[in-house]
C-alpha cells in the first residue's frame, strides 16, 4: 500500500437489518487498521444503528428502506461531499474479508484503475449458491449491452477512487445499481478492472441479497432505465 495510507480510505457498508453481524464486521475492519467506517443504515427496523454506534463506526441513516442502490448512492454522495479520495463498498453481512481490501488497492495501483471490482469468479471455482450463479450470469449479460465485460457484475465488494466518486451519477435504488455502475463507468470512460476475491457464505449471508425474483425485477428496471437514456 505504498501510495495509499489507510487513513485516506473510507469503508462504506450498506446495511438493512444487520444487527446480528454488524459489530463483528466493524471489529474486523478495525483490526485491519481501517478507521473511517460508515454504515449506511437503509431504514433498518432492528438495532443496526445502535450496534454500529456502540462499535465506534459512523452511521449514515436513511429514514425508509429503499434498497441497496439507494444506500450506495447515499454513500457516494457522502464521499463526494466529504472529498474522500478512496472509498470501499462492502456487504455488511460478513461475507467479504476486510483483509482483502488490500488486494483491491494493489490492483488499483497496478492497473491505474478508477474502479476495482472484487470478483468471485476469477482464478478459483466459486462456492456461490446455484441460484446466485444464475442471477449473476443473467446480470452479466446486461453489462454486455453497455459494452462492458466483467465476470462478476453483482459483486458488492468494490473500490472507487476520487475520479469515479466525482463522476458517477447513479439512479437505481435496488440491486440493479451494480450493473448500472458498470454501464456508467464505461460511459464516463473510467478504467474499471477486476481482481479475484474469496467470499464467506454462511446460512445468514445466503438468506440476504439477490434471488431469482429480484433478478427479474432488476432486469425490468435496467431495461427501463436503459431505454430512457436513449
Automatic annotation (TrEMBL):
Gene3D superfamilies: Spore Coat Polysaccharide Biosynthesis Protein SpsA, Chain A. InterPro entries: Glyco_trans_2-like (IPR001173), Glycosyltransferase_2 (IPR050256), Nucleotide-diphossugar_trans (IPR029044). GO terms for molecular function: transferase activity. Keywords: Transferase. Residues 11-153 form the Glycosyltransferase 2-like domain. This is Glycosyl transferase family 2.
Amino acid at each position: 500500500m505504498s501510495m495509499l495510507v489507510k487513513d485516506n480510505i473510507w469503508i462504506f457498508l450498506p446495511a438493512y437489518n444487520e444487527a446480528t453481524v454488524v459489530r463483528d464486521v466493524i471489529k474486523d475492519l478495525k483490526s485491519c487498521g481501517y478507521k473511517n467506517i460508515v454504515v449506511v443504515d437503509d431504514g433498518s427496523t432492528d438495532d443496526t444503528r445502535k450496534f454500529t454506534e456502540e462499535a465506534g463506526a459512523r452511521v449514515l441513516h436513511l429514514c425508509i428502506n429503499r434498497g441497496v442502490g439507494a444506500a450506495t448512492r447515499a454513500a457516494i454522495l457522502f464521499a463526494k461531499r466529504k472529498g474522500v479520495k478512496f472509498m470501499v463498498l462492502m456487504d455488511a453481512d460478513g461475507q467479504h474479508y476486510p483483509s482483502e481490501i488490500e488486494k483491491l488497492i494493489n490492483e488499483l495501483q497496478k492497473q491505474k484503475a478508477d474502479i476495482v471490482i472484487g470478483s468471485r469468479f476469477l482464478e478459483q471455482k466459486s462456492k456461490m449458491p446455484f441460484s446466485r450463479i444464475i442471477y449473476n450470469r443473467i446480470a452479466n449479460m446486461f453489462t454486455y449491452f453497455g459494452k462492458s465485460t466483467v465476470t462478476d457484475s453483482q459483486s458488492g465488494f468494490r473500490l472507487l477512487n476520487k475520479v469515479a466518486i466525482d463522476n458517477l451519477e447513479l439512479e437505481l435504488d435496488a440491486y440493479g445499481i451494480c450493473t448500472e455502475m458498470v454501464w456508467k463507468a464505461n460511459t464516463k470512460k473510467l478504467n474499471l478492472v477486476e481482481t479475484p476475491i474469496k467470499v464467506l457464505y454462511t446460512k445468514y449471508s445466503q438468506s440476504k441479497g439477490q434471488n431469482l425474483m429480484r433478478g427479474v425485477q432488476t432486469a425490468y428496471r435496467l431495461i427501463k432505465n436503459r431505454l430512457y437514456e436513449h
